[in-house]
Amino acid sequence: MSDQSAAAPHPHFRIYADIGIVVAILVLTNLIAHFTTPWANVATVPAAAIGLLILVRARGLDWAELGLSRRHWRSGAGYALGAVALVVSVIAVGALLPWTRPMFMNDHYATLSGALIASMVIIPLQTVIPEELAFRGVLHGALDRAWGFRGVAAAGSLLFGLWHIASSLGLTSGNVGFTRLFGGGILGTVIGVVLAVVATGIAGFVFSWLRKRSGSLIAPIALHWSLNGVGAIAAALVWHLST
User: Which of 158, 171, 192, 235 has its CA 20 to 30 A from that of 100?
Assistant: First the structure.
């Protein structure tokens, strides 16, 4: 054995190092986005997602591992259409039923114009595409190299749930239905955070499954957008019909 081969790092160490770097950057990004200036939230996550993509490409992950290969576009689009249709149907039923309608009354989307801008511009560019690129693209690819899809499903889903702790701190106080159920105090806030982490962790698993099944980021991006974007429009419509 040559001195060069003996000094070379074990391939698994390189993979685990990549995962550690990606997770560390995601944690730092989340803290900057939510606990510094309000403007930091606008650009931090998209910039971090692009930076992570460049980083892991330089570290050897190919476009297929990142869910960005053109050969999977058709499969991704097919799953995307099915996912959006299902979510739109469920949201429509939820918005129409009297006992679930208050859950849609989110203070952030009290006007239809604001909800449309959020749904078509802010949510896709600031949230959905960057998060999917970071989690179902970069993190998915790194975790899959280390532990296969079981690692992606477990670690990826958990990390995606934890990612939403900061953004869910005002969940119950800003939602009429949740405030009625849990109150707006500290206990309500804690319950809201726990529910958000569990719900987004489950959503993360579904997004990851779609990513693996279709081979493309198109499908989880479409599902993620439909949950957030169509939900925002539904919230505005519920507010409009309730006032």
Answer: 158
Question: How far, rounded to the nearest angstrom, does the alpha carbon of residue 167 sit from its chain's CA centroid?
Answer: 12
Which pLDDT does position 10 carry in this prediction?
56
CA distance 177 to 14: 47
Tell me the two tokens of residue 81: 């259409």
Mark residue 172 as left, alpha or beta (left: phi above 0; alpha: psi -120 to 50; beta: remaining): alpha
With a CB cutoff of 8 Å and minimum separation 6, the contacts of 224 are 128, 131, 132, 203, 207
Q: Identify whether the C-beta of residue 76 lies closer than 8 Å to the C-beta of residue 213.
A: no
> Which residues constitute the domain of residue 25?
3-242
* Dihedral class, residue 2 (left if φ above 0, else alpha if ψ from -120 to 50, else beta): beta
Q: CB burial class (10 A; 0-12, 13-18, 19+) of residue 1?
A: exposed
pLDDT reading at 26 higher than 90: yes
Q: How far apart are CA 1 and CA 47, in angstroms?
A: 43
Split into its structural domains, the chain has a count of: 1
Q: Is the pLDDT of residue 58 over 70?
A: yes
Q: At 135, which amino acid appears?
A: F
For residue 183, give both structure tokens.
């109150």
